[in-house]
Amino acid sequence: MIELENVAYGYGAKGDAPLLRDLSLTLAPGSFHFLTGPSGAGKTTFLKLCYGALKPTQGQLRLFGDDVAAMPRDGIALVRRRIGVVHQDCKFLDHLPVIDNIALPLTVSGQVMEDQQGNLDDLLTWVGLGARAHAFPPELSGGERQRAALARALILSPEVILADEPTGNVDWEMSQRLLHLLIALNGMGKTVMIATHDLMLIRAAKAQVQARVLRLSGGVLQAAGADL
Amino acid sequence: MIELENVAYGYGAKGDAPLLRDLSLTLAPGSFHFLTGPSGAGKTTFLKLCYGALKPTQGQLRLFGDDVAAMPRDGIALVRRRIGVVHQDCKFLDHLPVIDNIALPLTVSGQVMEDQQGNLDDLLTWVGLGARAHAFPPELSGGERQRAALARALILSPEVILADEPTGNVDWEMSQRLLHLLIALNGMGKTVMIATHDLMLIRAAKAQVQARVLRLSGGVLQAAGADL
Amino acid sequence: MNALSALRPDPGADRVVPPSGFTARLVVFTAAAMAFLAVFTLALALAAGRLAEEWDSALARSATLRISAPEEQMPEQTRTALTLLQQTPGVESARALRDEEQRALLEPWFGPDLPVADLPVPRLIEIEETRDGFDPDGLRLRLQAEVPGAVLDTHDRWRRPLIEAAGRLRLLGWVAIALIGAVTAAMVTLAARAALAANAQVIAVLRLVGATDAYIAGAFVRRFTLRTLTGAAVGTGLGALAVALLPSGGEAGGFLTDLRFAGWHWVLPVLFPPLAALVAWAATRSAARRVLSGLS
Amino acid sequence: MNALSALRPDPGADRVVPPSGFTARLVVFTAAAMAFLAVFTLALALAAGRLAEEWDSALARSATLRISAPEEQMPEQTRTALTLLQQTPGVESARALRDEEQRALLEPWFGPDLPVADLPVPRLIEIEETRDGFDPDGLRLRLQAEVPGAVLDTHDRWRRPLIEAAGRLRLLGWVAIALIGAVTAAMVTLAARAALAANAQVIAVLRLVGATDAYIAGAFVRRFTLRTLTGAAVGTGLGALAVALLPSGGEAGGFLTDLRFAGWHWVLPVLFPPLAALVAWAATRSAARRVLSGLS
Ligand SMILES: Nc1ncnc2c1ncn2[C@@H]1O[C@H](COP(=O)(O)OP(=O)(O)OP(=O)(O)O)[C@@H](O)[C@H]1O
Ligand SMILES: Nc1ncnc2c1ncn2[C@@H]1O[C@H](COP(=O)(O)OP(=O)(O)OP(=O)(O)O)[C@@H](O)[C@H]1O
Ligand SMILES: [Mg+2]
Ligand SMILES: [Mg+2]
Fold it and tell me: Is C169's Cβ below 8 Å from some Cβ in D?
């Protein structure tokens, strides 16, 4: 699905050493990964590489078999429909109600929302937003935004789910619930990668699913210590 | 400092029962409070009441002795200079570098940035943003944004500090460090209130400071259970 | 996407771009105001043009030949002159004025009782030119030889400056219309780019959920094209109405007192809205492409 | 905040509002283009006005008295008429034309050899009016009684329509300038409101850190006022330059062939930029107040 070979990435401005280097990893179909590391280590940057928002400055990155370096912009748009992303800052279209925001991937890929109504309702219930479906994004609480972002990431039934700190603003029970949803989706064959600081979440997940924990530190990717 | 008497608040649209009701609380100078509760319980709404962004629909709310109901808009602007707020969504002016964003409360209150340069540098070092001072907000990682928001809240040496989920996006070490900063400020007589889901953070704090833990649930404020 | 498909609505894509009240109103208003100004300027230019043409044809196409000769040679010289004129290319018709006509012309100077017949007044011959006109210098030479007492007066020096001025006014009008068009195009482009820049975050969200550039650009282009079309149609309509309601100025003047469109000229303002929409389409499309390839 | 303080920079407040490239350019460009158009329209209106006045004073202030009488009564009647005219209020001077002058007037019709002295041609008296003019009907009545052979010709009916047309053109010009001014004001207002709406988040951030409404409004108002001033100054400068560089049109016509400003008229375009800035200031200020009290 997603294959990195000696990938490096640096934000131009910094000049000298790249932020990330020597990244080699294959996200196999059906795998479950956690990505952790201190604030500013490059977790979000790593995920951005994985969904084609950034292109490696070195090395090779293949999404569904295609090299991103050679991919036209529209190609990346199409790839994004196969990867559901929960962004750390959860941006929405503030002029559309939550339900339309969640259905946005359907809209822009030309699918009719009505056909997916059942799917949409199920998702809203799962993330506990049934009652807030017709509110506008600025009227949501922090945790509600994160849950809406998760629902939006899942609406197209993507093959890969990349979640960046999906539980940073929700309480423990809700985070358990969202984790169960992701584990269930993984059980249906989806590839899942979660970037998080929440070590308790990782521990809880490892009790339920075969998950690999990766740690970004000093710009390189390592397997996490035995405590996780 | 901040006194609530039977305050209720409801977002107009919801119609029926108010989101929050029967809130009575006094944040005495030098006190340390935690506010917890499930996602969507109204923690952010409660803090917004405390810094005058929302006005109670019922009851009386006094900020530094003045009733907010009777306060003109400019009065609220002045009150805000005495209350440092870390917002959950940490919004910045994207066209100004981090350092200018952190100094923004100085700028809008007509103070000269140079006079506070030492203060500013100390703060940047404390929150670990010394190296990123001249980056622009969109170039920050999630955790860096939260730390910048905390620095901005503290720049005017406010008497009250309200922090909404200030550690949702930072790792454990960093969250301990930020907690120490807040505890140190509390030691200097500042009033602190932190809204958080992070029970581990609350536990860590209770070991170091005399903190009261409040829980919002079902729209009312309760003292938290013995486990905290 | 071509210009026409920009008018076909796409409810999905149209909703994802925020309504942006004031930019919308700004574009509609700009298009309307500029179209209104353009219609008025057009009316002025056309009226000036009509005037120049009228004067030109009324004056330049008529000339007067004045024959002063001793009484006895008069009939002979008049006849020679008429024959010569009839043979001159560019002369439509030539005719000696009757006594009453000459008297009417002289009345302002001499009063009604002038005995024209008894006076040594010159004989006046009125010449109508064809479209192409005759060559006055050639005619003068020939007259000099055959009708010594004849003086050709082509009226030119009297009203030529007026005709020139009307022509200049018309030119000024067309230049102003071109200017208004260019200004409108620039304003729509800038408004479109401002709207795209203001919606950078919307564009980012759309990109993240897998929208293609064509989809995003389409939503903006459609909106701006439609708004410009609407605005220009309203402005043109109001302008045309105002022009049509202008007082006709009566018979007297004729000069600029009747700004109203005549005949097929009504077609010209009708062309404004589609032209404006086309300009807006092209401007927004290139703006959208530039902005979209600029935002990563 | 008053209009002048809107021009005093406040480096802090000016930085907190994002530069917003395209809205800025849009405002500067709009102001410039509208000022340019306005300068041209002004030049046209002033030229039309000059023309109307010139014609009016040249024509309406002169009249002709024509006396037809038997040869022997002529000197007597002429003298009576002149005396009478000198006593008429509103008549500046009156003077009988000399024979050569009458011959020159008649030449176009009769050729140069006309023996004016031997003909029963009427005597022409040229009348110059004062500024206020005389009462033609009253004069006619008195003449009828004392100089039976006199006919008063005030030239009115010949050129009145032309003067009227020039006056109309001038009116049209002023209406167009008022329209351009109103359109500019509306555009600046809409652009300001669009910018305020696009910056809702910036405003929210500023509020959260304790900025007062006056501070936020000031930053926007200052910016729009300055931009409008700059744009209008550039547009006015270019327009005035273009008008000054227009060909003078030579001596011949005088009618609209010389659009250039004359004398103190140069002051008028210089007023445009400050006027535009004042309009922008008022428009942005009310827009900012409305938006700021709208956003909670
Ligand atoms: N667009 C950008 N331009 C320049 N530097 C950037 C940009 N985006 C991120 N950075 C920097 O790169 C580093 C890694 O950022 P990233 O967002 O990947 O961190 P992260 O691991 O997700 O951190 P967090 O846990 O705080 O979200 C940070 O120091 C950040 O400031
Ligand atoms: N502007 C608004 N208009 C209408 N409803 C709102 C608005 N803001 C918040 N709400 C609703 O009020 C409830 C409480 O929101 P609030 O942000 O206070 O929750 P919270 O306790 O901070 O939650 P979280 O832990 O997820 O941040 C939520 O259900 C939210 O959807
Ligand atoms: Mg991150
Ligand atoms: Mg909250």
Answer: yes
